[in-house]
Amino acid sequence: MTFGRRTFLAGAGALAASTALASPTKPRRIIDVHMHAYPAATVFDDPIVNPITGKKSPIRTGADHMEACIAEMKRRNVVMGVVSGGDGDRLKAAADWHDRDPARFIAGAGVRGSDDTPLPPLDVLRKAFADGSIKVLGEVTSQYAGLPLGDPKYEPYLALAEEFDIPVALHTGSMPGGTTFDACCRTARARLGNPEYVEEALNRHPKLRLNLMHGGWPYLEQTIAILMLYPNVNLDTGALAWLLPRPAFHGILRQLVEAGHGKRIMFGSDHMFWPDAIGLSIDAVESATFLTEDQKQDIFFNNAARFYRLPIA
Ligand SMILES: [Zn+2]
Questions:
Q1: How far is ligand 1, taken at its centre, from the CA of residue 153, in Å?
Q2: Gap from CA of 25 to ligand 1 centroid (Å)
Q3: The CATH number of the domain where 128 resides is what?
Q4: Residue 21 domain-assigned?
Q5: What's the predicted TM-score (pTM) here?
Q6: Which pLDDT tens digits describe the chain residue by residue (313 residues)?
Q7: Ligand 1 is a single-atom ion; what residues have CB below 5 A from it?
Q8: Structurally, how many domains does the chain consist of?
Q9: Host domain of residue 210
Q10: CA distance 36 to 93
Q11: How far is the CA of 168 from the centre of ligand 1 (A)?
């Protein structure tokens, strides 16, 4: 998600008082499939304030942000993260995180395809896929560019991902309030977050593995329709887990699990500028009392390890 550090959802602050759950006594291993890197030299001008807890962060640069994320991952036993580069230097930022801790990070190429954030040259991406420095195509933010994934612009990129067996992680569902009025994103449209729009692309590329980031919420029925028909599609809990009021997030999880898709849900934080959102997101899943221990283990670890074919035992 692209987030201008504004309020995401009215009423989300009501969650603040209920987020301080105790960690489980025996910490489980966790994979976070929805992380974001910013170039090390990025300077954050304003103090970063977590929109849910109101806590101020000492982070001032992209380099600080990376170290704070690693510290939070260690604190909560998040052993691996799939990290997407930020808008400034999309390929390099995520690769830098991988170089900082190769066993912890899988680098993804964040791409958009708008006039002011064009897609990277295909040959650059081909080289990165071939040498293994980039292992995921995502976060793909075609919704911000006002385009469906099936737009011809993305076609050679999907073909390349399929050729190299690279999973694609696509932003789906909603966006922060006011996104379409930002200079960056005048093309952004709510309706394009509907996962129905991925169907033509999936149909043309039957071997493609696709992660519906943010689970396509609020188009949950359409997400379920896509999961039913396309076994190569999973989803993640990015942003939903910590930015939504907890009953709403639990309602989403419950609906997906009751529809039989417990093995398709992957834990993702979408922490953006706020490393503590990783822990908040973990607490949100842990507190879902309707999930069995096995279901939690699938969401936190097994489903991502299988879908992303992660080098982890
Ligand atoms: Zn997103």
A1: 20
A2: 31
A3: 3.20.20.140
A4: no
A5: 0.91
A6: 665 543 333 333 333 333 344 454 667 999 999 999 999 999 998 888 999 999 988 899 999 999 999 999 999 999 999 999 865 556 889 999 999 999 999 999 999 999 989 999 999 999 999 999 999 999 999 999 999 999 999 999 999 999 999 999 999 999 988 999 998 899 999 999 999 999 999 999 999 999 999 999 999 999 999 999 999 999 999 999 999 999 999 999 999 999 999 999 999 999 999 999 999 999 999 999 999 999 999 999 999 999 999 987 6
A7: 1, 171, 213
A8: 1
A9: 26-307
A10: 9
A11: 13
**How many angstroms is it from 290 CA to the middle of ligand 1?**
26
Find tokens 């989300």 and name the residue.
12
